[in-house]
Each structure stands twice: as C-alpha cells, then as structure tokens.
C-alpha cells in the first residue's frame, strides 16, 4: 500500500510538474514582451532624465553666462546716451556769462529721429507716473525688476500659444532696458535669449537704482508715436503743454499709446486712444487707488484737445526756463548744431556726413554762448514788419539777418531771416549766405591795415578824385567811376577831405588810393589770413573793386564780417566766432573748448584810432550811420551798400557787443527801394538799439599809446602856434604828424 501511495503521490507530482511546465511555456512570451516594454520604458525614462539633465545643465550654464556677462545698464547715462544737450547760461547771470547756472536750451533728435526732451522725475506730476505704472506694471513698486507670474505666462505662450497674440510679461524695468539697449527680439530662440538677458539685466538694474530713478528713465524714453519719445516731448507734441500742465485724462491718453504707438496715438487714431484711455488706463488708475471716483468721472467726461505738432512751430522758439520745447528750432540752435558737426568732424577726422550721424546719435553736451534774453528779444523784433519798413506793406518780402557777439567771438544772438521760422536746420542768412558787403569792407580791407602800417593818420588829407589803373590790355581807366557808395555822380568834386571824413561820408576815392599804396594783394591777404574771411576768390578778388567797395566774387558772410570788426573794440584782436564754449561726448571726452586765444590783427593803438574815426559815422550829421545813434552808449560802425542797392549792411560796435545787420532780397539781383525801407542804421537801432543802450558799459577804454591832439584844418598836421583853424583828432603815439608851421 505504501508503494501505491508513493506511486500515487509520485504520479500526481509529475503531473503537476508537467502542467507547470506547460503553463510556464505558455507564460514566457508575455513576460518577455512585458520585460521588453518595461526595459524600453525604463530606457526612455533614463534617456529623458539624462537628456533633461544635460539640457538643464546646459541651460543653467547658458543662463549663468548671461548672468555673468550682462552688464548693468547705466541709467545715469540714459540722458547722455540718447540726447544731445545744448545748455545756455541762466539769463540772470548773463552779465558775467561765466560760471553761471546752466539751463537746457534744446534737445536734439536721437539716432532714430525721435523728438526727446528730458524732464526730471521731480517735475513730473504723480498722476502722470501713476497712469503708466497702473496700466503697464501695477506691481512695479513690489517686484525686483521681474514679475515672474507674467514672465512665466509669456514664456508659456511663446511655446504653447495659449493666446492669439503675444502675451507681454515685461515690467517697466524690462521695458526701460529694452528701450535703452535696443535688444528687442520677440520670437524663437532669439526671443528667449533676449528675455533671459533682460531678466538678469533688470535684476541688476533694480539692485543698482531706486524705483524713482528707473521710472524717471522710463518716462523719458518710452516711445509714444509720431517719432516722439518721453512724456515731456509727447505733452508738447500732442497737447501743446509742459508735462507739469497735463490733466489726468491727458496723462491716461499718453499711457494708452504704449502698447502700440502707431495704433493708439491720439493724433492719428483719436477714437482708439480715447477708448483705451477711458476703458483701461483710467480704470486701472481707479482700481489701484491712484485717482478718486470723482477724478475718474471728471476725466471720463473731459474732451481731449490735440494740437499735433503745432507747438513745434511756435514763434517763441526760445524760452527762459529749465527746459525748452523743441521742434522747430531757433536760428541759434541751428547754428550751434552746424558748428557742432564741424567740431566733431575735426576731432574725429571724419566727413561732415559722418559727423552729422554721430551728432544725431546723441550723447553730446554742448555749452553754448547764447544770451537767452537777447536771442528772444531779437527774434521778436524780426517778427515786427515795422522795424524794417517805413509803412505797412501788403506784400513785404524783404529779407534780413542779424548777429551779435562779444569781443571774444562768443555769439550771443543770431537771426537768419525774417518771418516765422518753419523748419529746423534750415537756411540761415547770417551764417550761410554770402552777400556783397559794399563799403562795410573799407575799414577792414583799406583803412585799418594802412593805419597799422603808418600810411595814414586821422588827419591825412585825401583829394576826392579817382585813381588811374592799368587794365590787362595795358589800357588805362579812371577808377572808381562813381565816388559815392550811393552811386551819386560821375562828376568829381575834387574836394579835399581828412581820413575820418572820407570814412563817415563813405567816399570811394580815399580807400582806392589807400589800396593802391597797399596793393590789392596786401588787402586780400590781410582779409584772408589775418581776419579769416573764407569766401574770397584768389583768382579774382585781389583787385580794386573787391577790396575797395566790396564787390567780392562770392560775397561775404555776415558772421565773418562782424567777427572782423571785433578788433575795433577789443584792442586789435581777432577771435574766431563761436556758438559753443565747450562740447563733450557721452564719455566725457572734450571735443572742443574755446580757450579764448586771440590773434593780434592790428596794433592796439591802430584799433582805437580806427574806433574813433568810425565813431563819426554815427555822430556826424552827414554820417551814413547817423540813424543808429543812441542816447546812453558810445557807438562806432560802418554802413555798406552794394551796387544798385541789392544789399544793405551795417556793422556796429558798442562797448559790450559787436553786431551786424543785413537787408536785401532772397534773389540777389533784386533792388531795394529806399523809399519803402528804413535806413540801414535805423533798422539796426530798431532791432538791437534798446539792448545795446541798456548796457552798463557805456564807453570804450582808451589805451595809453594814443593821444588826442589838435591838428591844423588847413594842413592836416599837428596844430602849431600860428594855426588859426584847428580841430581835435586821435593819433597813434608812434605816428604823430609833424607840427604845422606854414600857417
């Protein structure tokens, strides 16, 4: 029985074993498949982990590289980097002109052609700041430069496109950095890379600057449509106001422009701008407690009045104050920018075209020599037709130009044309247009160099007769044909006149005789090399007509003519005329600085004797400049009338300033009618007389090396004891005539 049991037991076991083997055989392919699937999944997971780790490591290194290489954006240089500043002396200190508080006169265009005017944070109303903060970055005062909630949403949308439009995540800090750096890629890997750079830069900026400093930079450079950047320029452009004068509604209107300046600016898209300002910006301000419910309701009801660019065409282009509206710039600003281009070209040894681009790129600070009060007054005088005409004309197209400088060549005021100035960097007659100077050339081409060489004195006697000149064909002729600058007659009087009489009568015969002695070449070289007249023609101008009566081939620029007359009021010195006292670039490199280094053009004694002779042009009843006479200050000067009355010129020296006025027509051949227009001396007086007359300095200084002596009116020699007819004149101590004994 035991065997059977064993057998039975043994048989059951075998059956079970066989069944197990069968089951095992049936299960093996499934396990294998499961194992394979498991292995694949595990392998894929490990690959994903490894790849992710590599990518994460690479991304970390990439980001850390950004963190290491991202420079802190320097907000202190925002104003300098994007704006060329022209500074003017505080008018209250203009009597001293130096070491005075500086005022911003003008801010130029940046490299993108944007109109910008810097305004300090303290001068921006709080509600203007709130209008931008509440709508653009309501957590601005809480985050550290990056609003990560908005940033993650922006990143996710960039990859997964949750929204139909790009989801902005930029804070005000980030927008400021983007506007400063120009780093503004928005799509693909470039967009992601830019965003990473922007994040680290923002964090660094927030560590280095206060919220106030960041917001100040943002509000000064934020693009606001129509090539306008910053709230000050936008307030000027759209509303004709200073930013401090904006209403809450106007502030909201400006803030509404930021998402899309082309689509939301109120000049081009009024309804869209107002709609966004009402529905979004004002609502944001209300929700954030920036304005009250009453203020909100009042702002909703307010109707915006858009001026567009009208304020840029204001007659009053120069204002006394810390910041001036730009747009249509004044003639002074234009001339300063033109000079700045030349200074940059010279400093960097580049073309004027390249220098113009560098100037427009900004970053220069230019200290000007302007006298704001004087500039403003003269501009207004040029808008008044009665200062030029004897009566009101229905169509007055007479043009004019004026320039005034001190005796170190520092230009104080300039106007380059009559009427309302309509364009910036336009034509400036005073600094660009070369016109015939007429007899105003005589003191600098004939009388002064002759007196300096001791060829003449105060009382040298000239016979009013022409000289005989030999022409190229060896024939001779009498010259000049007409002895007066006014073309009076060809019948010679042959009267005798003293030197000073020839000057105040503006007769042509004496300077012709003088130039004959000097030679035309000598006069030409004196003008070109000593007085730096740039318009002379070497082939044609060393001749009698150009050197005696100003019939220059190319004409003469008023600025250069007035600068040549400096020597008659400052002891014989020539200073290069300049609108700029100092100019530095954004790195602080001095591009130009006026060292006030003069050239001694003529002797000090020569200068004063010439000064006294030219005084008679004003004081003598027959003087051609007698209508310029003032009650309070001493004046010296010389008139000039070109052939056939095409140009009238008057250069006048007061004890404080040397100035000149030109009158004529844009078409050089058009004749001026003396019956319609005032005497050129009267025009100068109308334009500048009150300014000159108010000077505290009333007389010219008398140097030690001149003497006031009596001379014989019969012989022109120093009066002797027998001389019964005498007068008083001025003489150089080094060249006093002999004593008269013939009487």
Overview of this protein structure:
The protein is of the alpha+beta class and 743 residues long. Among the domains are: 1-69; 75-312, Biosynthetic peptidoglycan transglycosylase-like (Penicillin binding protein transpeptidase fold, Orthogonal Bundle), CATH 1.10.3810.10; 704-743, no CATH class. 42% of the residues lie in helices and 13% in strands. The protein has a 5-stranded mixed beta sheet with strand order 2-1-5-15-16, with helices on one face. A 5-stranded antiparallel beta sheet has the order 7-6-20-19-18, with helices on both faces. The longest helix has 68 residues, at 2-69. The radius of gyration is 41 Å and the shape is elongated. The relative contact order is 0.08. Residues 1-13, 18-22, 91-102, 310-326 and 483-490 have low confidence and may be disordered.
Radius of gyration: 41 Å
Global morphology: elongated
Strand content: 5-15%
State the CATH superfamily name of one domain: Biosynthetic peptidoglycan transglycosylase-like
Features:
24 helices; single chain; 13% strand; 743 residues; Penicillin binding protein transpeptidase fold; five-stranded antiparallel beta sheet; alpha+beta
């Amino acid at each position: 029985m035991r065997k059977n049991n064993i057998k039975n037991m043994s048989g059951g076991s075998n059956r079970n074993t066989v069944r197990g083997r069968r089951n095992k055989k049936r299960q093996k392919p499934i396990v294998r498949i499961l194992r394979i699937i498991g292995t694949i999944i595990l392998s894929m997971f490990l690959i994903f982990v490894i790849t992710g780790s590599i990518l994460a490591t690479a991304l970390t290194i990439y980001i850390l590289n950004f963190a290491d290489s991202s420079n802190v954006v320097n907000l202190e240089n925002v104003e300098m980097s994007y704006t060329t500043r022209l500074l003017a002396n505080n008018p209250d200190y203009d009597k001293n002109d130096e070491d005075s508080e500086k005022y911003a006169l003008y801010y130029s265009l940046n490299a993108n052609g944007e109109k910008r005017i810097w305004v300090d944070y303290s001068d921006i109303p709080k509600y203007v700041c709130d209008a931008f903060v509440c709508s653009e970055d309501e957590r601005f005062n809480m985050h550290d430069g990056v609003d990560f909630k908005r940033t993650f949403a922006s990143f996710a949308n960039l990859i997964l496109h949750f929204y139909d439009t790009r989801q902005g995540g930029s804070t005000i800090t980030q927008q400021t950095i983007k506007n400063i750096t120009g780093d503004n890629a928005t799509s693909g890997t470039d967009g992601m890379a830019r965003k990473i750079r922007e994040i680290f830069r923002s964090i660094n900026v927030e560590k280095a600057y206060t919220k106030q400093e960041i917001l100040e930079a943002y509000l000064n450079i934020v693009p606001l449509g129509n090539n306008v950047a910053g709230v000050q320029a936008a307030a000027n452009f759209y509303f004709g106001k200073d930013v401090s004068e904006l209403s809450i509604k106007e502030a909201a209107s400006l803030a509404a422009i930021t998402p899309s300046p082309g689509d939301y600016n109120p000049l081009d898209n009024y309804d869209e701008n107002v709609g966004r300002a009402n529905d979004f910006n004002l609502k944001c301000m209300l929700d954030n407690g920036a304005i009250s419910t009453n203020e909100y309701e009042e702002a909703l009801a307010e109707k915006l009045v858009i001026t567009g660019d009208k304020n840029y065409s204001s007659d009053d282009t120069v204002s006394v104050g810390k910041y001036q509206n730009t747009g249509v710039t004044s003639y002074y600003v234009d001339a300063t920018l033109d000079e700045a281009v030349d200074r940059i070209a010279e400093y960097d040894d580049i073309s004027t075209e390249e220098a113009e681009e560098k100037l427009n790129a900004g970053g220069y600070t230019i200290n000007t020599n302007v006298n704001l009060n004087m500039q403003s007054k003269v501009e207004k005088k040029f808008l008044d037709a009665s200062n030029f005409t004897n009566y009101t004309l229905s169509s007055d197209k007479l043009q004019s130009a004026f320039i005034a400088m001190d005796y170190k060549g520092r230009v104080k005021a300039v106007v380059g044309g009559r009427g309302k100035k309509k364009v910036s960097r336009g034509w400036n007659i005073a600094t660009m247009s070369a016109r015939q100077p007429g007899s105003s050339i005589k003191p600098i081409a004939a009388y002064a160099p002759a007196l300096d060489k001791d060829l003449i004195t105060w009382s040298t006697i000239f016979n009013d007769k022409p000289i005989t000149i030999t022409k190229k064909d060896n024939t001779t002729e009498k010259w000049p044909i007409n002895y007066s600058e006014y073309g009076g007659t060809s019948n010679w009087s042959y009267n005798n006149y003293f030197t000073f009489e020839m000057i105040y009568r503006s007769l042509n015969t004496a300077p012709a005789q003088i130039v004959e002695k000097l030679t035309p070449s000598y006069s030409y070289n004196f003008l070109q090399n000593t007085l730096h007249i740039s318009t002379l023609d070497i082939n044609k101008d060393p001749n009698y007509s150009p050197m005696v009566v100003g019939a220059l081939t190319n004409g003469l620029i008023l600025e250069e003519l007035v600068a040549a007359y400096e020597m008659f009021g400052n002891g014989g010195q020539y200073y290069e005329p300049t609108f700029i006292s100092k100019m530095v670039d954004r790195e602080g490199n001095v591009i130009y600085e006026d060292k006030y280094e003069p050239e001694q053009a003529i002797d000090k004694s020569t200068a004063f004797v010439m000064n006294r002779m030219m005084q008679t042009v004003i004081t003598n009843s027959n003087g051609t400049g007698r209508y310029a006479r003032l009650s309070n200050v001493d004046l010296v000067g010389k008139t000039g009338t070109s052939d056939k009355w095409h140009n009238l010129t008057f250069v006048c020296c007061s004890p404080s300033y040397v100035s000149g006025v030109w009158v004529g027509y844009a078409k050089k051949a058009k004749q001026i009618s003396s019956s319609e227009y005032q005497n050129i001396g009267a025009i100068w007086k109308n334009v500048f007389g009150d300014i000159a007359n108010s000077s505290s300095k009333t007389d010219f200084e008398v140097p030690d090396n001149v003497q006031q002596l009596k001379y014989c009116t019969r012989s022109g020699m120093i009066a002797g004891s027998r001389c019964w007819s005498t007068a008083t004149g001025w003489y150089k101590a080094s060249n006093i005539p002999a004593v008269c004994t013939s009487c």
